[in-house]
Amino acid sequence: MPALVTSRTPAFQGLERALIRRRLMQLDPRLRVELGLLALLTAAVLFWQVRVPLDGLARSRGPFAAIGVVAVAWLILAALGSVLAGGYHARRLRAGPHGPEWLSLPLESSRLERHLAWESCSRLPWLAVPALGVLAAAIGLVPAWWLALLAAAFVGLLRVAGGLGCAVGYRVVLAATEPRARLHPIERVLAVAAPRVARRRVSGARWRSAPPWVALLAKDLLVTFRVAAMRRTAAVPIAFGVASLLAWQLPGEPAFRHFVAFALSLLAAAGLAEWLIVLAGSDPFAALRVLPVGVMTVWGARAIWAVVGALGLVATQAIAARGLSAHALQLFLAWSGAATVAIGVLGINYGVTLFPRVDVASRMLGLSLVLAMVASIMLPLSGWIILLTAVLHSARRLPRWAWLEET
Asked: How far is CA 173 from CA 96, 378, 388, in A?
């Protein structure tokens, strides 16, 4: 390895700035506006929910009580950010981080370690959206200088939490890595992670004649069974689906079992949508775009999975549900099936229209579902309107699939 005569810190700083700019430019202007509006709407909903109880608390116990509530919210968001950053960092180190062959470059190991941690923390700024809503709810209830102090404290706390989560994830992966003499710890981790994909062996391809949508369905099954990450993603909706069936065996009133089973079935639908997004992103961009397939073929193949998932959930719920009248059971099955299809189609729309940006599609899905959930809490049934609006709005982007570019 060549001797390092200068620090690579400026090069990494330039790389990180370029990555931020490129990721922003990858989103077309309309999508950037949509993301901004969704973020503002989410913050406004939180402001609406937090403002009244926070005002009552400040009037009865003083401004420091309101400051304490905001501080607790900061700690909760920081803990969430630490878990997200640590989990993502550990997964990336196990699988091998994206980018060049890091070990072949003449880099300072400690600076490379910090860059990979920065990459894992790059999603945490999204937590500023709920923080903005909580902070706005405190305007007029606490002194203005306290608001500035709380905002600065949140930024610092989020940085510390992200770094702590990455450190824990790094230590977990390092503990499971075989010791190697004369290697920096991050080099040991990357040396083990890099060849993992290369060691996988699968049987040779067998060429068959089949409609394109059938070929995509078969490919989805093979990828899901062969790739561990895909199996874990597919296991999430199955686990929530099984839990929703077991909810009918809980003690208590039928209404309680009804509520728990429905909530778990919605989580199963969200997991199904996430799996469909990952499936869409698993298609090699260069290979898919030269095939004689159109957007409806790609979309329709994944829509079949959404319908199959909804039918499976409804059929098993019809067998497991107990304590409901015939009319209530029919209503429950109709709502569960419709919600599963709608959430699945939303995931498909984002996965196809944002292809191959799986991360952006997942964020859009999460934002839409959180917004629909919060709206339902504020005003019953309004969440369904938001969900259907998101489905129709995302479907408008489907004709633009032919102009997508790999970025």
From this structure: 11, 42, 42
Per-residue pLDDT of 219-267, as tens digits, reads 888 888 888 878 888 999 999 999 988 888 887 677 788 888 888 999 9
State the amino acid at position 194 in one-letter form: A
**Residue 65: CB partners within 8 Å, gap ≥ 6?**
57, 58
Task: Give yes or no for a contact between 158 and 78, defined as CB atoms under 8 angstroms apart.
Answer: yes
Q: Could you report the per-residue pLDDT of 350-364, keeping only the tens digit for each?
A: 988 887 778 778 878
- Distance, in Å, from the CA atom of 172 to the CA atom of 168, rounded to the nearest integer, reads 6
Instruction: Give the tokens for residue 141.
Output: 């209830």
Q: Give the contacts of 365 (CB within 8 A, at least 6 positions apart).
A: 270, 273, 274, 277, 346, 347, 350
Q: From CA 338, how far away is CA 392, in angstroms rounded?
A: 15
Please tell me the number of Cα atoms within 13 Å of 171 on its side-chain side. 6
Tens digit of pLDDT for each residue in 28-46?
A: 676 677 677 777 877 887 8
Long-range contacts of 90-94 (CB under 8 A, 24+ apart): 90/169, 90/170, 90/172, 90/173, 91/229, 92/116, 92/119, 92/120, 93/169, 93/170, 93/173, 93/189, 93/190, 93/193, 94/173, 94/193, 94/196
- Residues 6 or more apart whose CB falls under 8 angstroms from that of 180 comprise 187, 188, 191
